[in-house]
Amino acid sequence: MMSLLGRTDVDAGEVFVNFNQNITSLAVATSGGYSLYSLGSVDSTLDKIYHTKSDELFLIERLFESSLVAIVSQRAPRKLKVCHFKKQSEICNYSYANTILAVKLNRERLIVCLEESLYIHNIQDMKVVHTIRDTPCNPQGLCALSSSSEHCYLAYPGSVTAGEVQIFDAINLHAKTMIPAHDTPLAALAFSPSGTEIATASERGTVIRVFSSQDGSRLFELRRGLKRCVSIVSLSFSTCAEYLVSSSNTETVHIFRLDRSATETAEGHGSKQSSDDWMGYSFFRFLSKTVTSYLPTQVTDVFSQGRAFASVTLPEAGVRRMCAIATIQKQLRLLIASQDGYLYVYSIPTVEGAECQLIKRHDLRLEDHYAMDIKVDSPQTLGLNSGVSIGGAAGVPPSSASAAGAGTGGSGGDGKSAVSVTGGVDKPSSSYASAVKGDDPVGPSSA
Asked: Can you tell me which family this protein belongs to (predicted)?
């Protein structure tokens, strides 16, 4: 999913923001606690599902609309807690050898990203089923997990010097493909909702590319800008997969339309255009080929790259923002959550080049958002025992640890690294299974 790493924002009184996998809720964390909001009526109100006081959170990920959340606090950055927020219960916690930089969830897998390794958990029982070790140094915790169970792919950088993307099949536990996406190191990754496409951006930030995650073929090349290099912070496909949105350290958010019909036409796949349209298209293709044949490769690339369908200019640059496009109450909406504490809601135009219209700006720092705060009592375990140490992390009593053998080697590993479990991992309870499946209804309630 989408997350803001680095905690200087918390020190500055700013917030951590993160959308869930299908853009139906927003997680907001401040130095005093975290809240979960429903986005179903975001045009007018922002309904608070849950709020609790807690340590300063480093990461928070919610599993779709379920009651399951994975959190990492600044006080214990090596410990992952999996909680059932509706039951106010801690399901389990895992400790790792180094700082957790990212956590990704879908209904099959939970991924924990460290600087030089990735742990793949079976989310049904939280056992480690695979470990990818000795990955290229990844200090930003850059990785992506498809939200699809059918195409359950994990993507992560394959190089520290070039923009290589490693695609790993997280169900069958083997490498899928390697995509040489960019000349410079990667800055952002995002899967389409189906998991069959992946968008990439490099540290240069001028070009965004979309590839097939199954065979690595390039599908789209999109130009964000020509004038300056920027740092891409967020990439996200729309829930309908027809748009891609990007934000950076500038004040501009770009929306690209992924016109697959045009791609099929260009490849000669069953075009049904009128003769006039086809003549115009053929002339454009002829002109493009004629002109670009006399130009350097760098210039011809510019001719073939798609431009932004629409854009939004926000008040200031230098603010990290997470963006998403979702259909809300049958209307397509652009959602921009920023670390300075605001959620912007925009309509998306139907005509290329038109402006996105601001519908609503929500202040995420306000406590009064049409829901009850829930007081959390002392955590209770829920089917899975707490206290799992991965890779020899401190904080788990060694006298009660036992070998678990759940981890298996990935790239660069021998599959024999010690995984010690305190108290073992029990069979999940029906409450936990319901939470994973999303059968457990979630809504505002009092303790």
From this structure: Belongs to the WD repeat PROPPIN family.
Residues in contact with 232: Cβ distance below 8 Å, sequence separation at least 6, in sequence order = 187, 188, 201, 205, 208, 224, 246, 247, 248
Tokens of 435: 């939470």
* Rounded distance between C-alpha atoms, residue 420 and residue 425, angstroms: 11
Helix axes 297-304, 275-292, angle to 10 degrees: 160
Q: State residue 418 phi and psi, 5-degree precision.
A: -70, 135
Domains defined for the chain, CATH in brackets = 8-363 (2.130.10.10)
CA distance 129 to 121: 6
232 and 205 in contact (C-beta within 8 Å)? yes
* Residues 90 and 378: beta-carbon distance below 8 Å: no
Closest CA to 422 of 395, 400, 394, 446: 400
Contact 102, 144 (CB under 8 A): no
Residue of 138, 79, 139, 68 lying closest to 107 (CA atoms): 68
Q: In what order do the strands lie in the sheet with 232-237?
A: 232-237, 243-248, 252-257, 310-313
Distance CA 249, CA 226 (A): 15
Burial of 199 (0-12, 13-18, 19+ CB in 10 A): buried
Token pair 């080697």: residue: 409
Dihedral sign computed on CA atoms, order 278, 284, 288, 290:
positive
Tokens of 446: 């009092």
Tokens of 170: 């997280």
The residue among 102, 186, 173 whose CA lies nearest residue 136 is 186
CA angle 266, 273, 260 (to 5 degrees): 40
For the chain, how big is the Rg over CA atoms in Å?
A: 23
Q: For every one of its 447 residues, what pLDDT tens digit does the chain have, with 9 covering 90 and above?
A: 444 444 344 344 578 999 999 999 999 998 888 999 999 999 999 999 999 988 788 899 999 999 999 999 999 999 999 999 999 899 999 999 999 999 999 999 999 999 999 999 999 999 999 999 999 999 999 999 999 999 999 999 999 999 999 999 999 999 999 999 999 999 999 999 999 999 999 999 889 999 999 999 999 999 876 556 788 999 999 999 999 999 999 999 999 999 887 655 545 544 444 444 444 434 444 444 454 445 444 443 444 467 889 999 998 888 899 999 999 999 999 999 999 899 999 999 999 988 899 999 999 987 544 443 333 344 444 445 456 666 544 333 333 333 233 333 344 443 333 333 332 345 556 666 677 766 555 444 333
